[in-house]
Design brief:
Elements: E1 2-10, H1 16-34, E2 41-48, H2 58-62, E3 72-76, E4 87-95, E5 106-107
Parallel strand pairs: 1-5, 2-3
Antiparallel strand pairs: 1-4, 2-4
């Protein structure tokens, strides 16, 4: 079964090093909590709020060992007034035997505000 695995993280500034570092941290946490192997990933979509434009977060995923051939694409989120700024969101489409309710969606830093209903007690939420 292909399932969507979600995650989001915020950065404090539109700086390439921070964008890549925090994207990598988020993706590694998603991978660990859901036991994801690169060969099980159909694709990854990464979106950013429009205030992030200095780096492609997908670059962070492509640097992970054995993730070279995983299709990754970046896009911008809708620019909705009052939405959470400086936010990077990830959607992985993964082949898994996990039930929908057992998928661990990961929200870190200020992004924990997006889906508090999905936070697990064991989830890392801040730096």
């Amino acid at each position: 079964m292909i399932r969507g695995v979600r995650g989001a993280i915020t950065v404090t500034a539109d700086q390439p090093e921070q964008i890549l570092q925090e994207t990598r941290r988020l993706v590694l946490e998603i991978i660990e909590k859901n036991n994801i192997e690169p060969d099980d990933v159909a694709s990854v979509i990464i979106s950013t709020t429009t205030d992030i434009s200095s780096a492609f977060p997908a670059k962070a995923v492509r640097t992970l060992e054995n993730w070279t051939y995983v299709p990754v694409m970046c896009t911008h989120e809708m620019d909705v007034p009052g939405s959470l700024p400086l936010c990077i969101r990830v959607m992985m489409h993964v082949e898994t035997k996990l039930a929908q309710k057992d998928v661990q969606h990961i929200y870190m830093n200020e992004a924990t505000k997006l889906r508090p209903d999905l936070l697990k007690d064991s989830q890392v939420s801040n730096q």
